[in-house]
Amino acid sequence: MAEDQRIGSILLADCGTVMTKAVLLEQVDGQYRFVAQGEAPTTAEYPWSDVAAGISHAVEQISEVTGRHFFDAGGNLISPELAGGEGVDVFAATISAAQPLQVVLAGLVRDLSAASAERAAAGTYSLVKAILASDGQAEGPTDEAQVRTICDAAPDVICIAGGTEGGAVSPVLELVETATLACSLMDPEIRPRLLYMGNSRLRRSVVNIVGEQAMLKVAENVRPTLKRENLAGAQAELDALYMQDKMECLPGVDAVKSWSRAHITPTARAFSRLIEYLWHLGDSSKGVLGVDVGAANTTVAAVFGGRPYLTIRGDLGTVFGGEQLLQKHGAEAITRWLPEPLDSAEARALLINKEVRPASIEQQPRELWLEQALAREAIRMTMAVARPGWEPEEAQPYPGLMPLCDTIVVSGGVLSHAPRPGQAALIALDALEPIGVSTLVLDAYGLAPALGSVAAVKPLAAVEALDSGGLINLATVVTPVGHARHGDLILKVKVTYEDENGGTIDVEVRQGDLEVLPLLPGQQAVLELRPLRHFDVGLGGPGKAGQRRVSGGLVGLIIDARGRPLRLPRDPELRQRQMQKWLWDVGG
Amino acid sequence: MYYAFETQVTALTNVRQRRMLPVPGEVLVNVGERVDPTQVVARADLIGDFRVLPVARLLGVPASQVKRHLRAHPGDEVKQGQIVARRRGLAARSVKSPIDGVVKASGGGRLLIEGRPNTLELRAHVYGTVSNILEDYGVIIETMGAVIQGAWGAGGESSGVLKCLVKSPDKLLVDKIIDPSCHGMILVGGAGLDEAALERAQDLQVRGIVVGGLAPELVPHAETLPFPIVVTEGIGTVSMSAPIFRLLTTNEGREASISGRMQTRWGVVRPEIVFPLPGETLPPTHTQPGTPLTVGVQVRVVRAPHMGVVGTVVALPAHPRRIETGAKARGAEIDVGQEAPIFVPLPNLEILR
Predict the structure, then answer these.
(1) What ipTM was estimated for this complex?
(2) N or C: which end of chain B has fewer CB within 10 A?
(3) B104 vs A contacts (CB less than 8 Å)
(4) A409: nearest Cα among A583, A321, A292, A285
């Protein structure tokens, strides 16, 4: 406790692929408060080649605002805080700037063991370079083709899954043999590690096959039964490899480590920790979801029934990966979310130019729409990897739709820097398609991951920083689920404000509507929902009415009756008009 | 303070070229040695031809019994047609090596034979002197010269004499002005070029192209060209920045090394053009790399609506201003030679050094 009392100030930093953010929290009147933030380009590359420099640059901006100094003349962080207010008591950092692990996945069946291996790899910053899966066909790729694929991919790790517990033997061992043959062709200095995550009964045989040809690591079977997935062990091994081989090799990381009492944590892992923490504060029958859209990665962290799930797409963010997505899936995969026409050539030009000038910002509306469209698609594609691995149980009333989520945290520059909060809210609604009643929360200062990290050092600080505006309510969202014709009345809503002036609003919601009702930040209201036509608003089943006490947000109270799943008009002109209307509806 | 990204557009500097093999290999030069662009400074063996022989299946024996039938073992050299495994007895069968090579491994009833490796030769790419050896991986070569970093590039590396084909940086490079005298040259265009110009350049076996912009439709074609292309401003039709065009035209007729290689993260590699100018004396530099943006610094705008425009910072307002998207951004006022300075968000500026 004596040590607790000494922590009067906390400096948090998140070192991203493109931008580094820093935030200062300070104890004011016995409570931790957000004081100031700074943001500067990440400095992992020439001429700095030192990630600590980027943190210093971001902290300089905090110094400009607060007049306080945090570094001594030698560039070392002053800690603990001095009597004159110089320095800081605790520093914690998260990092996502390192190169992801390059992995090759091998499994017996693409949709089973290989898919589980893919989700295990997605639990850390990784890039899947190739997937080997014969799908039980005798006429699969030849041994030579598989060995060539591995050698060409030059991975850091080969993940081998396959065989339920007590299940397949020979085909799994053949995969191990193929991977070992590939390793034998590579220079010993650059040989990948093998991570075996298949049928555990084969471990001894696997050790014998691999021998001295490669460094072998073993994790629990990721697919112990056809229906069950167990990713924790494999994810922990991959996380450890990422930290050891990639994060620790970032130039300047040693200086950052020397400033911090806590371990430097991968950003996504820390973000996941915060989401887990929020789940414990809320309605445990529902889930909590977090989405962090970075420049190079998109992270989805979820908790259902107390069980955390983390999925990272290391190949897609709002800066890197857009052009590859356009090439692979066509421009319409992105441009379908635009409120105005943009041909594929111009979209491609904008995406490439952003990639070569990653820190630059959108100055023209069409560029902004494109960035926001890419964010929608990045989230949707990450969700497509994440969702099959979730076991939401009672929080999943409708298979195929999103599970019920109490809180949805949205983070990342594209959301926190959106010129209007309605734009951030609409990106989240379009990309996630939540159902029932959820609170959308915006990580306005990009400190959610760092707060997850500080929770390990000083949980109270994390709680109080959250309460004092670290996370800002964006909106309460009500999404009815059911079937009706466009324009049919499906829900009656009564909002009773709890402030001094009181007052009520009655609204009739029709299928296809996107309504925003006023509910300011800090304002409380009781929401009375009376669904019609057997629509479900998450209050216990189809047609169930009820009341919920809700808090206000930057956008207000959103009733999203556009339908689930969300369908966009096929005609480009109609679709653009529709997107424009939705933007207007949410004040975007 | 804001630390902007930087682009080198330098008339004379100490150029350090890091030449690295992708895998460990052999360095062939020594510190202090003078090298020319085509000289091989290091080489490495890459995985070439190999064969995986399903010996167990071919002999008709279980994988566990293959070992006793092998006639060649890991580490042994074998010739094409040589018997590498044989089963005696009534069901006698043999397996021959389909290639000359070395047995690398055996396991699971299979034999891996590696043929002749592909040798990768790493060339110096520039005239200069070897200043450092990066053990087993490569060298650092230093020379005095001019450097221009591009924004986007494709193709590999090359060298040749520079030839400017346009009179101003806003002109397009068209096929009509590419004549046979361009054979073996590095061509300089202005704001961009068209498909016909790319084809004509290819026919005439030019050594490289430098342009301000490149139409997005031409990106796939540019990525398959047999010579490097360096785009100085970005994708689209964009006039080449005046200082870059000036530096290119003043070096017309000189031999240059051009690289279209590009990596946008995790060890950024930018496309570039280097003109070795040996014997020149290094002038005092105005701005050190990695210093903050200040009034008086020459900058280039990297985003629309002023993409490619070069000017001088005249003010750094303390407060953010609203930009066209509705966002608020801190920025700088830039004198671009117009009546009034333009306001540009700080992230959309890069220092020209």
Answers:
(1) 0.93
(2) N
(3) 181, 184-185
(4) A292
